Amino acid sequence: VQLVESGGGLVQPGGSLRLSCAASGFTVSSDWMYWVRQAPGKGLEYVSRINSRGTTYYADSVKGRFTISRDTVRNTVALQMNSLKPEDTAVYYCHAAPPSYWGQGTQVTVSS
Predict the structure, then answer these.
(1) What burial letters (b/e) apply to 84-108, b meaning 16+ CB within 10 Å?
(2) Residue 87 three-state SS
(3) Does 9 score more than 90 pLDDT?
């Protein structure tokens, strides 16, 4: 089983990024899929999740700005991030459960 994130980078405040998580060894439609972030010096924050029925959840800090989606053909999960703020700077991880699988993370930096 493997989760591989991509799409991170440096963006100015107000900009957008799209993160992608490619899964292998299981299907993204069978598990809860999460995007979790960790800002420098802080703990893990569950940003968004999507379940097998397509029900989504967003943390208050990103609601209205981020959108999670799932592509069952490509077996990927994406996080579209708009109106980015400096406080969105973090390493973003793709996470599947149960059982628990984690990607290696991708860095998102929002700075002018």
Answers:
(1) beeebbbbbbbbbeeeebebebbeb
(2) helix
(3) yes
Residues 74, 5: Cα–Cα separation, whole Å: 14
Mean pLDDT value of segment 32-55: 95
Which tokens is 30 given? 């069978």
- Nearest in space to 50 (alpha carbons), one of 63, 69, 76: 69
Q: Residue 47 pLDDT more than 90?
A: yes
Which pair of structure tokens corresponds to residue 39? 């800002």
Are residues 47 and 62 in contact, defined by beta-carbon separation less than 8 angstroms? yes
CA 63/CA 100 separation, integer angstroms: 25
User: What pLDDT, in 10s, does the model give residues 21-37?
Assistant: 999 998 988 879 999 99
- The C-alpha atoms of residue 74 and residue 37 are separated, in whole angstroms, by 23
The count of other CB atoms within 10 Å of the CB of residue 25 is 10
Which of 2, 14, 28, 4 is closest to 92 using CA atoms? 4
